[in-house]
Write a structure and sequence with these properties.
Elements lengths: L2 H25 L1 H16 L7 E2 L2 H4 L6 H12 L19 E8 L8 H15 L3 E2 L6 E2 L1 H4 L2 E2 L2 E2 L1 E2 L6 H8 L7 E2 L2 E2 L4 E7 L2 E13 L5 H17 L8 E7 L2 H32 L10 H24 L4 E2 L5 H21 L7 H30 L5 H37 L13 H6 L4 H7 L13 H15 L1 H23 L16 H12 L5 E6 L8 H16 L4 E3 L5 H7 L10 H14 L7 E3 L5 E10 L5 H17 L5 E3 L3 H32 L3 H6 L9 H10 L4
Parallel strand pairs: 1-13
Antiparallel strand pairs: 2-11, 2-12, 3-4, 5-6, 7-11, 8-9, 10-11, 14-17, 14-18, 15-17, 16-17
Helix pairs in contact: 1-12, 2-10, 2-13, 9-10, 9-11, 10-11, 10-13, 11-12, 11-13, 12-13, 12-23, 22-23, 23-25
Length: 735
């Protein structure tokens, strides 16, 4: 059997199904419309169960990634010390904080008394910011909600307020990038360094950490962050200017942008689509006019959006901010289907009965919208397997929306077409639905031109009788343009150029993210992000965690730890090893060291004494009730890794180092949660898009008469969401 014969046989069987539905819709249009409206209303009730997920970490990082598992494991081992002995190096996550950048207005160095005095006044203002405790009713200032350690509040960057810092500043002897055992390279911005000495800095960054050890303290800390943002704009400075943010600023900005803009934009879009659909179907006279069908198509899409939101929400799928894009996609898909159906109806012979017209329309256009809807749904179904919750939920909402829109086209719009054809056959006015005479008859009665135009009409005799200018112009121009031989050559050349640029762009595409692009330019966070990107280094703390009990006095264990440290040192392009942060190295050098071979009890006794001398390291060693060391960690700091690719590669390399060690060790860093995205996005994109392409080919092959057409014809780009979804999520809101 020839391929064409097989296709014709298959097409006939499929077409018969749609013909039967067309016949059914012709006889029972009101039943279908009523049932459709009731069904959509029931589905829309699910909106009452809608829940919203807004946290950036949950939305834009891979579900159940290695970073999630490692962080949970480390958090179980190392308890929250923010109320007892807080140390930034001990944080398992990013913590809660308010952060301020201070920059000299004239661009000069702030390393002098005048500027430091003003910075201290800003510091006093921040520490006086207070919130009300809902339990006691008392005012709580920063010192009451701050993360605590032996020196007071956990303020990162507080070394600039010490006498030692000022003394070194007077002597031009501020060591850099370490000062007094602290890494200060993330504290100062726009720096000039010579011989490991800080000579110039026009910006300083101060981070005010908050308590997070109990639900009550977290509540007060969150309230303090909100008060911090409200209070900071009121600061008056003479010599400096200020930028600020807190731990939830990015979340708030991203969700604020989406929530604040989409509703208004969709209202505008819906209004424009009403006018467009009306104009695009405005050809003909008062009988053949199809504007009401165009508006019914827009209403069909609107019903689909509400119903799909409701049914997905009813099943507990959380609404995420990028689902706000879904209505715009569904409007395009729904109107495409509407115009396909209207075009099929216009192609039917005018002499046919209404039933024959609808049957023929469904046989051709019904199959067409089935193909587009099926391919769109399958594309989103593949996307729903994504490892990113934002993409997964977006695809679930939109995929269901496509199905509901397809259902509504059949159950609502097709019956509307039947009713419109009945009106046309009965010569009824498109607005009043009252019977009217033809324009020729009204003219013969001497009626005015205005009356004839507004109150006269007759059924169309061919397609041209009710085509709008928007339908006539492209057909008139494009047919002649495409069939003109020089234009064919021009089209082929233009496509080759387009293909060349596409291939070049694909081969040179780069991942990257500027947080300043994610916030409104009028936002306080935008200013902070711009300064941070322009003037400060991007450095992260990385911990190598030993999560199980080991005999640290054993020679073999010590050798393996030394080997691990040597490997870390060899990665000097990525990380910087700081001996002062290695508790074991510092202990072995100290006078407290008791390194007797295989004598664990004496070794541990010495460690405990040493940690009393070094409280900044005490959080890095965990003892059980019997005094045994059950876990420990060694901290390092990364180099200045600005690009997301560098950050992802660093995370992979640190994990490789841990995996290559003979010891039970894992590499953990709070930002690894976000770096997982940079590592997972490309393989996940290639996998889902690859699967989608294969599925599209298989589906298209079922409806195409020749294999060559399958290779040449793809989905309408407007209806194929795969690439649009990925670029919106990861190059738009967060990547």
């Amino acid at each position: 059997m020839k391929v064409s014969d097989f296709y014709l046989k298959y097409e006939k069987r499929v077409g018969v199904i749609f013909e039967k539905y067309g016949s059914f819709a012709t006889h029972y249009p009101w039943y279908l419309i009523t049932g459709c409206l009731m069904l959509n209303t029931l589905m829309a009730i699910g909106l009452m169960r809608m829940k919203i997920e807004t946290h950036v970490e949950v939305l834009y990082t891979p579900i159940e990634s290695q970073a999630y598992k490692d962080r949970a494991k480390v958090a179980r081992i190392f308890p929250d010390q923010s109320a007892i002995n807080f140390n930034m190096l001990s944080l398992v996550d990013l913590g809660m904080y308010g952060q301020v950048m201070i920059r000299t207005k004239d661009g000069s160095t702030l390393l002098n008394d005048t500027f430091l005095d003003e910075i201290e006044s800003i510091d006093r203002h921040i520490k006086n910011i207070a919130v009300t405790d809902p339990v006691s009713g008392q005012e709580k200032a920063y010192n009451d909600v701050c993360a605590l350690n032996s020196d007071g509040c956990g303020l990162y960057g507080d070394m600039i307020f010490t006498e030692k810092f000022r003394s070194c500043m007077y002597l031009n002897n501020i060591s850099f990038p370490k000062f007094n055992r602290q890494a200060i390279s993330p504290v100062f911005g726009n720096v000039t360094v010579k011989n490991d000495t800080l000579l110039f800095a026009s910006l300083v960054k101060l981070r005010y950490y908050l308590r997070t050890d109990t639900p009550e303290s977290r509540y007060l800390s969150r309230k303090w962050e909100e008060a911090f943002v409200e209070s900071m704009p009121s600061i008056v400075t003479n010599l400096t200017e200020v930028a600020f943010e807190h731990s939830e600023s990015l979340n708030i900005e991203l969700n604020g942008n989406t929530a604040g803009g989409d509703t208004g934009l969709f209202s505008i879009t819906f209004t424009i689509m009403l006018f467009y659909a009306g104009f695009a179907t405005s050809g003909g006279d008062c009988v053949s006019q199809r504007q009401n069908l165009g508006r019914a198509g827009v209403l069909t899409t609107l019903l689909s959006i509400a119903a799909s939101f409701g049914v997905v929400s009813a099943f507990g799928v959380k609404f995420v901010n990028i689902v706000g894009v879904m209505p715009f996609l569904l409007v395009g898909i729904g109107l495409d289907d509407m115009f396909i159906l209207l075009s099929g109806l216009a192609d039917t012979p005018a002499s046919n009965s209404i039933e024959d017209k609808i049957k023929q329309t469904m046989r051709t256009s019904g199959v067409a919208i089935t193909i587009t809807s099926l391919t769109d749904f399958l594309a989103f179904a593949v996307g729903a397997s994504s490892v990113f919750l934002s993409v997964r939920n977006f695809c679930l909402y939109t995929g269901v929306g496509v199905l509901v829109c397809y259902m509504n086209q059949l159950m609502f719009f097709v019956p509307c077409m039947v009713l419109n054809e009945r009106r046309v056959a009965e010569r009824r006015h498109c607005l009043t639905c009252l019977p009217i005479e033809s324009r020729e008859h009204l003219q013969s009665q001497g009626k005015s031109r205005r009356f004839v135009r507004c109150c006269g009409g007759s059924p169309p005799k061919n397609r041209m009788d009710n085509e709008s200018p928007l339908e006539r112009f492209p057909k008139f121009v494009l047919q002649r343009f495409v069939l003109f031989p020089p234009c064919k050559v021009l089209i082929i050349l233009a496509f080759c150029v387009y293909l060349g640029f596409s291939i070049y762009g694909t081969m040179n595409v780069k991942q990257g993210l500027k947080l300043s692009n994610l916030a409104d330019q009028t936002s306080y966070y935008h200013k902070y992000a711009v300064w941070d990107e322009e003037y400060f280094t991007t450095q992260m703390l990385v911990s190598f965690v030993f999560p199980s009990t080991m005999n640290y006095s054993d020679t073999h264990t010590l050798n393996h730890i030394d080997a691990l440290v040597d490997t870390i040192k060899s990665e000097s392009e990525m990380v910087k090893y700081i001996p002062e942060w290695n508790w074991l190295h510092q202990y072995k050098k100290s006078a407290f060291s008791r390194m007797l071979p295989d004598n664990a009890s004496i070794f541990i006794e010495g460690v405990k004494l040493y940690l009393q001398y070094r409280p900044d390291l005490i959080n890095n060693v965990i003892f059980d009730d019997n005094g045994n060391i059950i876990a420990s960690r060694i901290n390092v700091i990364t180099r200045n890794l600005k690009h997301s690719t560098e950050q992802g590669n660093m995370m992979i390399r640190m994990r490789e180092i841990a995996a290559e060690s003979e010891l039970d060790v894992l590499a953990h860093s709070a930002p690894f949660i976000y770096f997982e995205q940079y590592v997972a996005i490309l393989p996940s994109t290639l996998t889902t898009v690859g699967i989608a392409v294969v599925v599209m080919i298989l589906v298209t092959a079922l409806f195409m008469p020749h294999p060559l057409l399958v290779a040449l014809v793809g989905n309408d780009n407007d209806n194929d969401p795969s690439w649009a979804v990925w670029f919106h999520v990861f190059l738009g809101p967060y990547s």
